[in-house]
Design goal:
The chain is of the alpha/beta class. It is about 25% helix and about 25% strand. It is globular, with a radius of gyration of 19 Å.
Length: about 240
């Protein structure tokens, strides 16, 4: 079994140094570990290397997405079967199906695609986890067939702090259609409502009250103004000495 040659602190330091070197106050961070070599298709024959990329980020799903919500459809491509890959790992190859699904959706005029799991239940979107709101209760899909996103876990915690009940259970596609609100979350997307799915209006067809409340809490969290910010955020040291 290969051992990651960089410990947690070294990885954090590399991320901080890269952000500071580019003088970003807000950016997307992409640390990536890749295998150098292993052309014989055996992992043990390669060498692990790491790179860190950062870049300025604009609205991932469009400038109006946060206010209006976005349009989505059910993709014809299925989310990976759990035994095809290590689906809990953020592996680049796991996103090939997502790329195909989102490309298909945008060519059809939608903003995002919702992927079903191999059993036909809702899994997640191409780069975001998905939630459903009905009668004031928040539902989300089980962990077996999804990437357990950090933003997803953070949002579940914050939602429960706010008094919402959050339930993980299988969700069928028609449950999406009759929901009061549907929203997605992710590092890039943050918190965005789905105002329409498969040409069906969701709720009032705009960002709803639950999503707005969660958007506000998430913004406060990421900007250091939330009670959990002190524990969850890490300051980036400047490379320039005072």
């Amino acid at each position: 079994m290969m051992v990651q040659p960089f410990n947690k602190q070294q990885t954090v330091d590399a991320i901080h140094q890269t952000i500071a070197a580019n003088a970003y106050t807000a950016c997307y961070i992409r640390p990536m570990i890749y295998l150098d070599g292993a052309m014989n298709m055996v992992v043990d024959a390669g060498r692990l290397r790491m790179v860190v990329a950062v870049w300025e980020w604009t609205a991932f799903l469009g400038a109006e997405a946060k206010e209006r919500g976005i349009r989505a459809n059910i993709a014809s491509f299925t989310r990976l079967h759990p035994n095809i890959m290590m689906t809990k790992a953020k592996v680049s190859g796991n996103y090939v199906g997502s790329i195909l699904a989102k490309t298909e959706s945008q060519r059809m005029g939608f903003d995002e695609a919702i992927m079903l799991d191999p059993n036909g239940y809702v899994a997640e979107c191409t780069g975001e986890n998905i939630f459903v709101v009905r009668n004031g209760v928040i539902y989300t899909t089980p962990r077996a067939s999804i990437l357990e996103g950090i933003t997803r876990e953070s949002l579940i915690t914050v939602a429960r702090d706010m008094g919402y009940t959050v339930i993980e259970e299988p969700i069928s596609r028609d449950q999406l259609y009759i929901s009061d609100e549907v929203f997605v979350c992710g590092t890039a997307a943050e918190v965005i409502a789905l105002r329409e799915i498969d040409h069906r209006k969701i709720g009032e067809g705009k960002t709803g009250v639950v999503v707005r409340a969660l958007q506000k809490a998430f913004d406060e969290l990421t900007r250091g103004r939330h009670p959990r910010s002190a524990k969850w955020l890490a300051p980036v040291p400047s490379l320039v000495k005072a």
